[in-house]
Amino acid sequence: MVALGNISEWQPPSGPLTMWSAVPAAREAARTARRSDLPPSYQQVQHLWSSFHGTAMNRQLPRLMVVSWEMPGTCDIAAMTAAVNAHVHRHDTYHSWFEFENGAIIRRTIDRTAVINLAPTSLGHKTTEQMRTHVLTTTPETLEWGCFTFGVIQHADYFSFYASVDHLHIDGLSAGLIFFDIHLMYQELCGGGREHTPPTPSQVRSYRDYVARQREKVGSLTLSSSQIKDWIAFARETDGNWPSFPLPLGDTWTHSRGDLLTVELLDAAATEAFDQACHAAGARFIGGVLACAALAESQLTGTENYHGFTARDTRTPGIDTMTVGWFASMVPVSVPTTSHSFAEAARAAQKSFDAAKDLAGVPVERVLELATPDELGIKLPTCLPMMLSFLDFRKIPLAGLWAETNFGTYGDSLSHGGINMWINRHAERTTVTLSFPDNEVARESVHRYIATLSQMFGRAVNTPYQPGVVANDDISDVLAALAPNTDDDEAA
């Protein structure tokens, strides 16, 4: 199974560490890079402002994604250097950085790709804990150029590769593309002689082209556009209660430490049964996932109408498919839960998702660029949004290779103060992962929420639920007790 966790769950054995980072000439090229009229993507804008405010408050916020996998043998440093540089050269999200000037975000772009070189540095033997600290502390900050580093830890007969990249430049699917680029290119280089000339890669479209298309499309929308009207209708329907975690999260200001918890919701047999239950209800797997989230919230709070955000990839097939960048965006969904019926909720969730999925390409921020909340007759959210992402790993061609190489994606153990949730379908099970503030109140709420969510999945496939497990402090016992006994879905 593909690992998804926080950095403490990344456990490469100790060994000599080599890191690739930008050479001085590349940093000088970034410092003197030209100003560009192209703004960041809407996704990047949110992240940049968070970084700006976090820096002003001297507060660390989540930003790094660490992607890691294992490769056999002794790392060929020259071949890996070629593979890493080829990856950075072909994806132009790495070629820009951003600064704030009089309240505006300015893009600076390095035009001469050839000057962007990363060189290896041998850092000696490191323990596992030292490597984790190194990865988190040596990758430059969001508002600096070069907020991406790569490295290998050599072991007896294999090595661990990692990429530590600021979220500014990647989303969840980009983690897989980093693997695709570097792992396969390194293997090809090692199998093709000693000259270490990277093979000519397939054409990769520019992330900056995506940003330009996004800005042009979104900029053409007005208050009379159907997508804007749909966002306004959703905002009015929520009446200020925008999608957020339904339980208390305690003190989220004293510190910004975060944690993640992964639990198996369905085993292989129950996953198939759940899929069948979704189709019997006239929905797909994602409709069932959203239905269970809606029913769980109803069980916890008594709400009769669920409002949620689910993630959706906005890459255009055949154009951005292989492009590294932040493409994931949010889709609003609404599900009535008065009947408490899984079938009815799944149908309603699927209908809502299908009707709204194209709104992923229309950031809600555009609505507020067109008019004030009072003019729109809406209330702004008072809590941090909660995102639910669903991914079917079986539909990713390299998923089998991921399992063979111990592939994993890890967060930096920080929290913005809210909750995000990932429900993933693997070949052998369905899991849920939640990120949350690392405090006792939030942890207890997350355990309670997962128990209720598990109950809803169990009801959908008629498996018995075992109550009270969230009171157990041993996570391994929680995992065991929560596990049931028994197309066309979206990914983000």
UniProtKB/TrEMBL annotation:
GO terms for molecular function: catalytic activity. Residues 66-369 form the Condensation domain. Pfam families: Condensation. One of its GO terms (biological process) is lipid biosynthetic process. SUPFAM superfamilies: CoA-dependent acyltransferases. This is Condensation domain-containing protein. It comes from Mycobacterium rhizamassiliense.
